[in-house]
Design a protein that fits this description.
The structure is a single chain. This protein is an alpha/beta fold and about 575 residues long. It folds into three domains: about 170 residues, Thiamin diphosphate (ThDP)-binding fold, Pyr/PP domains (Rossmann fold), CATH 3.40.50; about 150 residues, Rossmann fold; about 190 residues, Thiamin diphosphate (ThDP)-binding fold, Pyr/PP domains (Rossmann fold). About 40% of the residues lie in helices and about 15% in strands. The protein contains 22 helices and 17 strands. The protein has a six-stranded parallel sheet with strand order 2-1-3-4-6-5, sandwiched between helices. A six-stranded parallel sheet has the order 13-12-14-15-17-16, with helices on both faces. A five-stranded parallel sheet has the order 8-7-9-10-11, sandwiched between helices. Strand 1, helix 2 and strand 2 form a beta-alpha-beta unit. Helix 3 runs parallel beside helix 5 and helix 14 packs across helix 21. The protein is globular, with a radius of gyration of 25 Å.
């Protein structure tokens, strides 16, 4: 029995435990030292293996499958800088509470620190971002029980709250390729690991504190950031309290009839907001994405924070009441402690202003012939079918979607907002698509190009995804920031690329269409759902885009009577 046969048998035990814990998708990059891992994953019929040339893309692809399914995914790679290339996905996994199991192959201990080729220090490589790290033993014929124990522990850690990345480093000696001898090393024993019992159940004291803070407050507002599960009871609590709801697209709560339809426009209109400022804000989920919403929760007289998942939803430590518990379960308890109140004039003012602002926004952007970036976000969000997923990139797309998206039902919005990077976005989209739902994406041109290798590698591999790309030839977000005043603005921040996206799509084997007029987007997106990976490019002028955003805000101000 060769070293390769034993290594494959040992790693197969580990993979068996991961599969029993719910891991279904595994991303693998080519390498020699990782041969036992790759074979164990590929030969397990419960695993769907996705091969990627680039480890960074592989990590984000796995992240996409995990975000879409809510189940952990595996990433395997060879030793050396291959493992280092997983770092960005590990950070996003940790910050966004998305479970990944990282299986990094390594040289055996006797080769470490000797200058041996492709050898780096991989022990604890991901530092505090990994929820747990383990060094696997060198495979040995009689160590089946040890590998079974390692697999069970890794699976248990993967399912433990808070979710995130788990790292197992696996050293192997040569020869790495098995000769074909079947190695039965142990009996699998009882069923695999289960999710821990950390459900975030609120205490009666938690509910009483929130109920007391909400009771009798007429001028209240609910702000809902990113959430992993729908906030049904939170919305019901807001309605019973007659507090308006400002819900981000990634909150799963921007629902018609429940959430404000132009909430970001209202809180960005300073003169109107000063006359309608809430006394209390209940912030649910992650910290708000936009500066206007951040400024609002940062200046309110009394801030209540309710969240179970995120790293720190109160970064300025201003919360008068902080409840670390499941939001919907907490809201259900709070509603037992209070009675529904009748709508106040203040509440009716918010709802009336919301309708006025929404009408002003839509009428103005509908009158423009050029494909304004805010309208692109609005129209794409409305086009995604029920049951579909819209992945949205960081920088301007997530902000445009937040400002312009109308409430709707049935669509899930996903984004890499744990660390809010643009890297790996295309891979994340393709990972989402691999799980089956109709998949759409909105991202800027730099976000697309930052992960260009993912499209070049994966566009011909049977996935279906439509990416809408407003192309303003660089980092358009910096035109909204103080850096725009710097003489080095264009060279150091905007970084115009001048690339032809049609030729890029052709090289990748992706479908392509260019939209020159606003009215052309809807039919272009409809044609793009025929199958495969497709790009819809929407050319945009940066200066014009900034001016158009200002015109929208001015129109809202006029409609509200404050300009």
């Amino acid at each position: 029995m060769s070293e390769g046969d034993v290594a494959l048998g040992c790693v197969s035990i580990l993979v068996d435990e991961l599969a029993r814990a719910g891991v279904e998708h595994a991303c693998v990059s080519p390498g020699s030292r990782s041969t036992p891992i790759a074979l164990a994953l590929a030969r397990d019929p419960r695993m769907r293996v996705h091969v990627h040339l680039d480890e960074r893309a592989s990590g984000f692809f796995a992240l996409g499958t995990a975000k879409a399914t809510g189940r952990p995914a595996a990433v395997a790679c060879t030793s050396g800088t291959a493992a280092a290339n997983l770092w960005p996905a590990v950070v996003e996994s940790s910050q966004s509470r998305t479970p990944l199991i990282l299986l990094t192959a390594d040289r055996p201990p006797e080769l470490r620190g000797t200058g041996a080729n492709q050898t780096i220090d991989q022990a604890g490589l991901y530092g505090s971002y990994a929820r747990w790290f383990a060094e696997a033993p060198l495979p040995a014929e009689r160590d089946g029980a040890a590998w079974r124990a390692l697999g069970k522990e890794a699976a248990a850690r993967l399912l433990r709250y808070p979710r995130g990345p788990v790292h197992v480093n696996l050293p192997f000696r040569e020869p790495l390729v098995p000769e074909g001898t079947t190695v039965g090393l142990d009996d699998p024993g009882p069923t695999g690991a289960e999710a821990d019992d950390e459900t975030g159940a609120p205490s009666d004291d938690d509910a009483a504190r929130l109920a007391s803070a909400i009771a009798g407050v007429e001028r209240g507002l609910v702000v809902i950031g990113e959430m992993r599960a729908p906030a049904e009871k939170i919305l019901a609590l807001a309605r019973a309290s007659c507090w308006p709801v400002l819900a981000e697209p990634i909150s799963l709560a921007r629902r018609q009839g429940w959430a404000l339809a132009a909430g970001q426009a209202l809180v960005s209109c300073n003169d109107w907001l000063e006359a309608h400022r809430p006394e209390v804000v209940l912030q649910v989920g992650a910290v708000p994405s936009t500066r206007a919403a951040q400024a609002l929760v940062g200046s309110v007289d009394r801030l209540l924070v309710l969240d179970h998942d995120h790293l720190d939803p109160d970064p300025e430590h201003r919360a008068a009441v902080r409840v670390r518990a499941d939001p919907d379960a907490t809201a259900a308890l709070v509603m037992r402690e209070m009675r529904a109140r009748a709508p106040s004039d203040w509440y009716r003012d918010w709802r009336s202003a919301d309708a006025v602002a929404r009408k002003a926004m839509d009428e103005l952007v509908d009158s423009w012939e050029e494909p304004f970036e805010g309208r692109v976000a609005r129209d794409l969000a409305a086009l995604v079918p029920a049951g579909g997923v819209l992945a949205v990139g960081s920088s301007m797309p997530i902000r445009d979607l937040d400002f312009f998206m109308a409430p709707r039902e049935g669509t899930r919005i996903l984004a890499n907002r744990g660390a809010s990077g643009i890297d790996g976005f295309v891979s994340t989209v393709l990972g989402i698509a691999a799980t089956g739902p109709p998949t759409f994406a909105l991202c800027g041109d730099l976000t697309l190009l930052h992960d260009a290798g993912a499209l070049l590698w994966s566009a011909r591999r049977g996935l279906n995804a439509l990416l809408v790309v407003p192309n303003n030839d660089g980092g358009g977000v910096f035109s909204f920031l103080p850096q725009r005043e710097l003489p080095e603005h264009e060279e150091l921040f905007v970084t115009p690329h001048g690339l032809d996206l049609a030729r890029f799509a052709e090289a990748a084997g992706a479908g392509y269409e260019r939209v020159e007029k606003a009215s052309e987007l809807v039919p272009a997106v409809s044609r793009g759902t025929a199958g495969g990976v497709r790009l819809v490019e929407v050319p945009s002028d940066r200066d014009r885009n900034v001016a158009r955003h200002a015109e929208v805000q001015a129109a809202v101000g006029r409609a509200l009577g404050v300009v």
